[in-house]
Amino acid sequence: MNLLKRLNPFQGKAINENNIESLILRTLMFTDLDFLSNSLYSQLDSLLPHKSKDLNRKRANEGKVFAQYELCIQQANTLQNLNEKQNNLRIAANNGHPIAQCLFGNTLDDENYPRYLKMAMNHGSTYAAALLLKFYGKDFDEFDQAIYRIKCAAENGEYKSLLFYGEILILSNWVPRNLEEGVKYLKKAMEIDSNSLDYLKLLISTLKTLKSDEVEFYQTLYDKKKKLLNENMLKTQKELADRGNIESQFQYAKLMLKKALKENLSQQNYNSKNMSIKNEKEGLKYLKLAADNGHAKAAEDFAMSQTNIDVKKKYLSIASKAKNPRANFKLSQILDADPDPLNQRQSRYFLENAVNLNDPEAMYHLGLAHLTGNGIEKDVKEGIHLIKRAARLKFPPAMKEVLNWTKKGKKTEIKKKVEAYLTAELTKIEAGKHENVFPDLYLPGIDIQKFIQ
């Protein structure tokens, strides 16, 4: 959903110095906070940072509570350090800001994550209600209340709730499925804003199932929206990147590299091939720019695009210092290939860093090393523990390993449930299916970490 377009009171005119303040003031006056998003604030902040921040600082100094929370969120968006982000979001979350509660909750572990979502739901956030339903399923102690909140908001025409409730009726097994009713809610949402392409795809696929004559209309709409969205996104990210916005440098690089790959795969003619090479160079240029400016993911991606091992190590080191889990793991792999004892010790150091940063592949590799005693002290219990952690994070090799364990020994009820769950999840992963907000199969209470044998 394009929030800037949706909230823009100037009917599609470009956002500039003359109308930015009115736009920000309008967003601050919204009563339904679910309309607001941290991405909106980061976009506003990137466009005219002195305007948006100065306005909220002024309002915060005047004691306007809402602006105080927005300032915390804006500042959190500009920070690279996770602890600093958390501290800013915590202030806003603990003072009752639903968006901050959702964002802060996402940085926490499974035990504390739902606590902040419940706070957000109690402050009227239907988005938090939807996330809680996904997290708990029918085991949620406020299940009926969450469904009721989403349904009521949908019936009152609230955009996100129309999408959520339509999806619940079409995809989930929490309420009796009703494709016709689900389509009705999704169509109402599309009348408000048809920029949510994932939900537009869901509407199209459901209409196909119902053999509706409206499929062609919505498919044409989808194709137009996707093309327009891509063009607008590319233009906007380029403008922001050239103004020095590091995140936009990274996003623009990704878009250009994706475009180059698509053109390269088509290989329709000589011009197409030349365009692919040109776009790839442009993408790598901005990827390096973002990496040199300290963007952890850009540094990781740029490193992996290089063949020179020293350049690889340089940029992976930048990313690893910013606590990028994949960079730590990849740096560990590069160093592990060198038999030098110093590099072997460094390899182990970066591998353990990656595990501490919750990289599932690193957990799996360290787990295997503990199980076999390969280059490390053998510790079967720790090996099993690490592989189960990786399985919980849906790393396929680890999931297959745990699946093999379920087939050994006596078949218990928990083993059967774990086996069914892992088999279904692996099937989805290997089929490359998109995981919906409300997946068909969600088995709460199955803790693979506690699974024995």
Structure description:
This protein is mainly alpha-helical and 453 residues long. Among the domains are: 1-124, no CATH class; 234-395, Serine Threonine Protein Phosphatase 5, Tetratricopeptide repeat (Alpha Horseshoe). The chain is built from 24 helices and no strands. The chain has helices at residues 3-7, 20-28, 38-47, 49-61, 65-77, 82-94, 98-105, 113-122, 126-136, 143-155, 159-171, 179-192, 197-209, 215-242, 246-266, 270-292, 296-304, 309-321, 325-336, 341-356, 360-372, 380-392, 396-406, 413-431. It starts with a helix and ends in a 22-residue tail after the last helix. The relative contact order is 0.05. It holds the Pfam family Sel1. InterPro entries: Mitotic_Regulator, Sel1-like, TPR-like_helical_dom_sf.
Keywords:
453 residues, mainly alpha, Serine Threonine Protein Phosphatase 5, Tetratricopeptide repeat, 24 helices, 0% strand, disordered C terminus
Quick description:
It comes from Tritrichomonas foetus. This protein is mainly alpha-helical.
- Counting helices, strands and paired strands, the structural category is mainly alpha
* CATH topology description of the domain at 234-395: Serine Threonine Protein Phosphatase 5, Tetratricopeptide repeat
Question: In angstroms, what separates the terminal alpha carbons?
Answer: 46 Å
Helix content: over 70%
What is the overall silhouette? globular
Order of helices and strands: HHHHHHHHHHHHHHHHHHHHHHHH
CATH superfamily of the domain at 234-395: Tetratricopeptide repeat domain
Using only C-alpha atoms, the radius of gyration works out to 24 Å
Q: Helical region count?
A: 24
Instruction: Give the low-pLDDT segments.
Output: 1-51, 433-453
The first-level CATH class of the domain at 234-395 is given as Mainly Alpha
Indicate the CATH architecture of the domain at 234-395.
Alpha Horseshoe
InterPro entries: Mitotic_Regulator (IPR052945), Sel1-like (IPR006597), TPR-like_helical_dom_sf (IPR011990)
Protein name: Sel1 repeat family protein
Pfam family, one: Sel1
